[in-house]
Every structure is written in structure tokens, then in C-alpha cells.
Specification:
Blueprint (H helix, E strand, L loop, with lengths): L4 H28 L4 H11 L5 H25 L8 H15 L8 H6 L7 H36 L5 H22 L2 H9 L9 H4 L6 H28 L6 H17 L8 H12 L6 H28 L1 H11 L1
Helix pairs in contact: 1-13, 3-4, 3-10, 4-13, 6-7, 6-10, 6-11, 10-11, 10-13, 11-12, 12-13
Length: 332
Amino acid sequence: MKLNRNIKIFINYFLGPLLFIWLSWSVYRQITRQPDLGIAWQRIKESFSSPTLWNLVITVLLMLVNWSIEALKWKISVKEIQHVSFFRAFKAVLSGVSFAVSTPNRIGEYLGRVLYMNEGNRLKTISITIVGGISQLIITLLMGCIGWITLRPVIEARQLISPLWAEVILYGVMLAVIVLTLFYFRLSLLVKWFDRLPASKRVAYLVKALEDFNATLLFKLLSLSLLRFFVFIVQYYLLFRLFDVNILWGQAFWTVSVSFLVMAVIPTITLIELVQRGKVVATLVGLYSANELGMNLATASIWFINLVLPAVIGSLLILKMRKIITLKNERI
């Protein structure tokens, strides 16, 4: 079936340019609103003459590793529906980021990825993409929970939170991990339950693909999600060192893990979360370091490298969707 002409026009001439303009404007607004912008800019310029400049280079390279792992996760997830090359999966993931950064909790990510699937397979891919997101969320909550247990004595000693609320948060996160994990490894039961719903036959194909998610595949997705998590932590640690945030590896690992946990449960939009993310990281890493400017610079750099830069590339890829659509039509 050929794409509707209006949809073609929307994708080719409106969606890509609009995303690019929106991203550029939003990034500009977020940067100009940063406190101590002049001092921060001076510190960034100084870092380019620092012997630890390689930390920045490695961080950018790890961004490619990060999204390559996510592309691999998506590739192996959709293989039962459609064979997708790694390069195509990588482009789909970046395009998904361009949608995700301007939607609450990045729900627009699904729209960007399905553009690279064949017609008839696009809606089926949404439920599969959600499973990949759940695997990453389980790892985030689990590592955040361990981090919370590790940091709890320090957090309570600094009176950041009362012992009662520390207990509530701990058991709340533990419960969430258990429930999500049980749900994750019982996806086939979800399909069977869905089949029993009245008038579900028309949309049953949307979740039918979940039956192919066996334990081996689910563990593989969790393993890749854990690897992505470690990549994130290493990026933060490298930039902490670049911006003179004197903190040990173990301290960085657990404080950033807990900050990921906090950000995972706070509804937000990526393009306006920079200040919020900076406050969370500064509060937790501030348990061990007083260099708040360095923390904010590291957080802003991670935000730009891991999210904004891939989103801009993704919006440019969407501009090229016209060629993809033209090739499809020629095959038809």
C-alpha cells in the first residue's frame, strides 16, 4: 500500500525541518538560562587546554557505543517481525531520539523508530520497543535501589531526607523492581490475557509478537541494558574528572545511579530537564564534592552529547526519509 500523499508531504517537508528548528531553539534557550553562564563558558574553554581533554573525546565516542547498544537491542527485538540491518536500526534509534526529546518521558521515541519499518509492521513494533524500554527501566531501578542502600547512611547523616521517607522510598523501589521483573518475564501471559478481552481480535496483532520473547532473549536485552548503564556511568565519571569534580569511582557510580533512579520517576521532557537533572546530580554528588559548577558542567555536557547531538542527527535523518519512501514506491 502506498503512503498517503499528505503523509509524504508531512514527513518530507514539515516534520524533519520542524524538529530541527525546535531542537535548535530549545537547546539555545536551555543554555542561555544556565546560572553563571559566563563562568561556565570560561571553564569549558580552559578544559580544552587540560591534559584530561581526552576524557571529552572518549565521552563522545561512548555516546556512539551507547546508541549502538540500543540499536542492537532493537534489532534483535524486531527480528521475528522484520530483518533490520544494524545500520538501519542505528538510524531508527537516532530518529526516535529526535522525537523523544520533545515529548514527556520520551514517549515519542516509538514514532521515530517505526518510520524505518515496512508498512504492516509499524504498529507491531511499538509493543516490542516498549519491552526494550522496560528492560532499561528495570536496570535503572535495580541499580538505583542498590545505590540508595549504599548511600542511605550518608543521605540520612546529611539530613537530606528523614529515615521514615528513606525507608518508604527503599521498599517502594524494591516493590517496583519485583513487579516489573515479573511482568517482564511473563509477557506471554499478557498476550493470553489480551486475547480474552472483548473485541480484541482487531488489535491482537499489536501484541502477538511478544509471544516470541523467550527467556533467553529477555535476558539478552537486560544484559545489553546493563552494559548501557555502565557506559552512562563511565561518561559521567570522565566528565567529573575533566571539570575537577574530585570524587572516587565508587562514589560517582552510586550517586549517579541514584540520580538516574530519581529522574526515571519524575515526569519530564528531555529538552527542559537540564536544570532539574543538574539539581539532582548536584545534590547527590554534593555529598562528596563541593564543586557544584563542575557537576553542572558535567551534567550539561552529558545532556548535550547523549541526547541533543543524537536528536539533531536524527532530525536530519528524517529529512532524508523522502529517499526511503521513493525507493519503497519504486519497489511497489
